[in-house]
Every structure is written in C-alpha cells, then in structure tokens.
Amino acid sequence: MSEHESTYVPKTGVEKWLDTRLPIIRFGADYMSLPTPRNLNYWWTFGGILALCLMTQIVTGIVLAMHYTPHVDMAFASVERIMRDVNGGWLIRYVHANGASMFFIAVYLHMLRGLYYGSYKAPREMIWIIGCVIFFLMIATAFLGYVLPWGQMSFWGAEVITNLIGAIPVIGEPILIWLRGGPAIDNATLNRFFSLHYLLPFAILGCVVLHLWALHSAGQNNPVGILIPKDRTKKDMLPFHPYFTLKDGFAIILFLLLFAIFVFYQPNALGHADNYIPANPLQTPAHIVPEWYMLPFYAILRAIPDKFGGVVAMFSAIGVLFVLPWLDTSKVRSMRYRPTMRSFFFIFLVVGVGLGWCGGQLPDAPVIPGFGGVVLLDGNLNSYLWLTRLFTAYYFLFFLVIMPFVGLKETPLPIPATISEPVLTGADAMPALAPASPEKKG
Amino acid sequence: MAETGVIPEGEGDPNRRDFIHIAAGAAAVGAGAMIAWPLINQMNPAADTLALASIEFDLTKVQEGQQVVIKWQGKPVFVRYRTPAELQKVVTEGAVGSPPQTDAERTKSGHEKYLVVVGSCTHLGCVPTFNAGDYGGWFCPCHGSHYDASGRIRKGPAPLNLIVPDYEYTSDTRVRIG
User: Any idea where the Cytochrome b/b6 C-terminal region profile domain is (chain A) (predicted)?
Assistant: First the structure.
C-alpha cells in the first residue's frame, strides 16, 4: 500500500553509490516486498499470467514482424513462408496465434474474479477503469492482428469491423474512408493495420504500468473483501516475494501446460479454417464467424434488428463496465457474503457463455431441433435470434437494474472483522498456522 | 522579483501578463492542431487510390438465371439476369424494402430483366450469397440479412436496399458502370 515503508538497505558499495543517484534497486525491492493479503486464492494468479501473456505476444510478435510482409500481394504468402521456411517459424506463429486466445481466457477469468469479489469497489475504481481500457485495447489489437495474414476471415472481419464505425450517423462515412484509406478494404488498410498492431501492445504495456501503480496505491483486494486494518498488517499480510511470486509461478506453469497442449497438439482448434483461404474481396465465406473471444459481443450486435442500434448495444456492453463501480450500490465487496447477488452472478456467468455459444450459431437455426415454435416479430421464438435477445437483455439488466437494486435490498451475511477470522474460527481452525510474522519463521 | 513593480496593480482584467499567457496558450493550441492535422490526414485515401474507375461490361456474358460478379472500385457489382418467374414476383410485390421501391425504380426501362447492384450488404459490407435466403434473392452470411430478387432488404439488420450504382447502356448489350 501507499504507506508501505521502504525496507531496502543497500549493502554493497555499488548499491550505496547507485541508491543516492538512481534508487532503481530500492524501487524494485519495495515493489517485491509489498504486503499482500494472506488469504488470496488461485483466482488471484491471473494478473501474473496476463503479464506473461503480454510479454509472450510482444516477443513473438517482434520476431514475426521480421519475416512478415504487410502488402496484399505478399501477406498471405509471407505467413506461409514463416510456417514452412523460417526456422521454427511454425512454432512462433502458433504461439502468437494461440497466445491471443490464452490472453483472452486469462483476461475473462481475471475480470470475472474482479466482478465476484468486488475488486472494482472503492478505493479500487481506477484499477478497474484502467483495466477496462486495457480490455478494449486488447480487443482492438487482436482484431488488427487477425487482419494481417490476409485470409478470408481477415478480410471480412476487417470489412465488418470498420463498417461498425461507418454506422455512426453523419460523421461515420468520412471516418470509415479515413480508417480504410480508400473506398474499400485494400492495401492501404492492411499497411496501416500492421503499423497499429505493432503500436498498440506498447500502449497496453503503458496501461499495465498504470494498472499496477493504481493497484499498489489502493492495495490488493482479497476473497473476504475487507480492508485490512493497519494494526493487522503484520498478522494478515505477507510480503509479495517469495510467497506470491512462487504461487504465481506455480499457476503460470499450469497455464503454460494448457497453452502447450494447444500449440503442439491442437494449434488450429481455436482458429477458423477459412483463414487458410487467401482473401477474396468478391466473396464472403458462407460460414463466417468471428474469433471465439469476440463471440458474445458479436451475438449482442446481431440480436438488435437495427444497424446503428446494434453497434450502440455492442459498444455499450463494454462501456457499461467502465461505470460498474457506481452501479453497484452494495457496501459489501465480496459476493461470498452476498448470497442473492451471488445467484445473479452465476446466472450472468451462464448467460455470458450462452451469448458466446449463440454467436457461433446461425440466427435462424432452431435451438431445439424438430420443434416448431412460434414466430414473434421477425423471428421464431425457437431460434438463436430470440435466445440471444433473452441473454442480451439479462446482460444489461444485470448491470443496470439487478446490481443497483439488489445492492440496496439484500441482507448480506455477517462479514468477518479480519481475514484470519474465518480461518481461525471455522471448523478446520488451526491456530498453529497463524504466527505473528510467518515470513520470519523459516 | 524586480519586474513585479513594473506591472501596475489593478490594470484591468485581463491585464497585460494575462494577455501574453492567453496568447501563448492559443498559439500552442494552434500549433498543436497544425501538427496534428497532417498526421491525421495522411490516413485519408492517397492520390493513387482516389482514381474513380468506370468499367464496361458485356451483358451477353450472363445467362438467364445467372449472376456475374465484377469488381468495381474494390467492391463487387452483381449483374443478374433474372428469370421471368423472378421478375414476375418482384414486379407484383410493388413497392417494398427500405426505402420502399418498385422494381422499375431499380432497373433501366427496356432492360428490366437485368439487375445491376453493388454487391455489398448495406449492414456491415459483406457480400450476400446468390439465390439464398427467404425471398429468392440474396442472403448475407455475416449477420443474416435477406434480400429479394430486386435487391431490396426484406429481413435482418441491414438498413437499406442494395445500392444501384450509376450506370448506363452504351449499346443494347453493353453497360458502363460509374
């Protein structure tokens, strides 16, 4: 936390010399010794995993940029050349491509963790808002990157996404042409998307620094969701290193196992086969589907039978996250002590996954095969169109109605005064496990 | 400081020192805007992409019931030779779509059997699939818009009928698009 006092003592002559001129070792040492709540569970390891994901994407990305040619005549072939001729090129490309999916798996779990444990609530609003900015930049970056191989999905994804901006009344069309650099998606578009795909990860990196800075000023949240009183710091906190560096490290190894299974055994499972067909500006593939991590937002766009309305709904689905700290009226942070809200949260979880599932289906296809159903307005009730609308309605209701309302009405369970209390007074209480300064006891 | 005595007190609001601050600030904003504009404008279409092409097309290449897709200004143009049944259907439906249009408003008189439209879905720009959807025209696979055989939007999120480009008949069997 901000009042965390420096405990670094320079030992060697070089350290002493450096400490009065550029206290960079002190900065790092203070960072690593940050008091961290003892009760963090494995849902708290995704921050470290995400940092790893970002570095993986940046390093493999820079390597790929050494071999990739951002020109419509050569882009697809240059990616195939990376796969066939560049030493280990197939590995680097598959790591980069699957790395994007892993990045999104981790970020969704990270965000849901924050949602469940109330990590966005005062005094952590800035951490959450910067996180939302990072999420938005991640989507933009992943989209720009997907365009680069110049396959069919690349081309038509670019067509649809840039057209989203064209849906804005009056100013949409000039911005669309400005974004594309011409009347249609062409070389000018690909060329600039390459440049921006290189730039944005560094903007994300900058936001991550702010994210961590805000985290270190407001302090870590914890599963109990209470602020740790100053006099309990010694009892309820542990230094970040070595306790949490090792815990994060263990989680990272498990995560890398999953990552490796995809890269080495199922490298194309998360991608779309049509992106192995070179872009054709005269034909949209019949089975066009966005990348899996965009599917829930794609489903929301498609649920609205109006062009601009759909675009507004889709961006609102992300925009609502920015004001989340002010929509939740409850004083209790962790949903562990909010049984009513917890039920709504798990419905939200199902709805979120459901939206993604709907996004992968044809809107007119029946949800229950062989069952007639009733036509309501522009679609059969027994179709993914109406199921998507139901889920979309819940998505927005959850944030805009349920969250403010339940926060005011519910009666939370008794909240422990300290984070040690639930451990020490529970059935499995083991007082021997709570020494005053465990880090000093070997 | 020595200068403070030089500025008379209560010289009016804004005084001379305020004026120089405001002027310098305004100049900085102006200079910033002048630097920003070329950085933004470089992304607008370059001279080599601005050239507006017009193309000629020989209609005898299209068989009855068939569609030919040609590329014009980077976009597909559909040239469809409609069967009498399709033509009959779209004419009897009268003015439908968005905006409501009759088939005659979308073709050249004397050449009703040929439909020439820009093959970009008016929703988010995908190319609709020929002879698919609920209205015997096109179906857009991206977000499920249905068009009839006159290219009018009948169902789905697309806001407008398929655009009819500027074109004219240079002879009985040739059209010039653009």
Answer: 230-417
